[in-house]
From TrEMBL:
Part of the Sec protein translocase complex. Interacts with the SecYEG preprotein conducting channel. SecDF uses the proton motive force (PMF) to complete protein translocation after the ATP-dependent function of SecA. It comes from Candidatus Yanofskybacteria bacterium RIFCSPLOWO2_01_FULL_49_25. The chain crosses the membrane at residues 7-26, 313-329, 336-354, 360-382, 414-431, 437-461. Residues 291-458 form the Protein export membrane protein SecD/SecF C-terminal domain. This is Protein translocase subunit SecD. It is a multi-pass membrane protein. Keywords: Cell membrane, Membrane, Protein transport, Translocation, Transmembrane, Transmembrane helix, Transport. InterPro entries: Acrflvin-R, SecD, SecD/SecF_arch_bac, SecD/SecF_CS, SecD_1st, SecD_SecF_C, SecD_SecF_C_bact, SecDF_P1_head. The lineage of its organism: Bacteria, Candidatus Yanofskyibacteriota. GO terms for cellular component: plasma membrane. HAMAP family: SecD_B.
Amino acid sequence: MRSRIGLIAIIVATVLLFFFVYPNAWNKGADFLNKKTGLESKKHKIPHFFAVRAFHLGLDLVGGTHLVYQADLKNIGDQSAGDAMQGVRDVIERRVNQFGVSEPLVQIEGTDRLIVELAGITDVNQAIQLIGQTPLLEFKEERPAAEGTVIIAKHLGADAGKIQVDSLCAPQNIVALSTFLQQFQDDPCFKSTGLTGSQLKNSQLIFDQTTGQAEVSLTLNGDGAKLFSDLTKRNLGKRVAIYLDGQPISIPTVQSQIDSGNAVISGTFTPQAAKDLSNRLNAGALPVPISLVSQQTVGATLGQASLDKSLKAGLWGFLLVAVFMIVYYRLLGLMAVLALVAYVVYVLTIYKLFGVTMTLAGIAGFVLSLGIAVDANVLIFARMREELRAGKTLTASLQDGFNRAWYSIRDSHVTTLLSAVILYAFTTSIVKGFALTLFVGVAMSLFTSIVITRAFMFAILGPRLEKNRWLL
């Protein structure tokens, strides 16, 4: 009786989870019955119980852009490479999320590389623009005139006398200073203060109340507010410069010490340019420079073709396995196929519930785990047949068959699980997808082979089967 109740519970759970995996089956059935029975226009019609929720499909199945960035970790100081790369990943993920890209994948590969996958975006230039060059915001103070003169002389030589430091560093000559910086990568006017975009709490678009000019308001965090207070205190009556990506964009004169931690970037911004700058600043400054080293585009048509072929391969594989099991193991094989159906439903439920991204490699891992699940049943049935040939009853043969097969099943599954963990931890993103689906599939195989197959087998035991052992 208990075995029958357990079997019913498994069947009910499998059916419900099937509708979770494939809700259109329920919803289309509900629509059909509502239409046929006239309930479609009435209040108490059969509802759509299961919301349609799609699987997360990888880039190779839906199309999109695959980018690989390399980080320059030479000047990270006391910071560990791992922390620096984690910071880069977090910043780029925030940046991509701001543009509403569906299910972006941003992950670290190795020690200095970052993988960015943007599903649905097949324009590489658009993808690169989405990530963009993360702004480096810096607050700088005046460099002593003597130092500036030396820097100018170093780069211009005999022509140094044609340029005066005071003139080059004046706010009205900001374009000339930018040209000098672009050409020589050396700043004769301003020096770093340690106050950068990393101390920025948030920024937003504002408009000057007098001129109506678009500006960017900055709010600094606690450390930034203290640095800014010290900066404005020691530079009263002097100029400070706000640099973005190594270029000066504003050179105001400090009128008073500012303790509030608030600052404003003014300039010749259009409202859209100021808004874009604010968004970029809010996304954060990269802790280390990065460069694009690889790019790849997968078309949506190619992705759909790959998905169709994968589904067909999986379906044919399942059917061939089912036919073999039923032909060779007869009733036992039929029970194994039913358990395999439940196994597929449970695995797909986990994939969908936890947002596992399905890729071609991931599908390969799932198909492999399907074979491992079948192998577990084969071990059980082989042991059971040995017990039957030894003259034991069906119940004893089934019990002993499971017990004898358990150790082999456990050991093979555990070693495969360990292999999947190692693959996931130490390999690239493509192999990670394979390892993850393999791990989930093998873990579920361990459950279905011992619990579900066992429940099916004990449910069919009885005098009638005892008289028809040829079915086994």
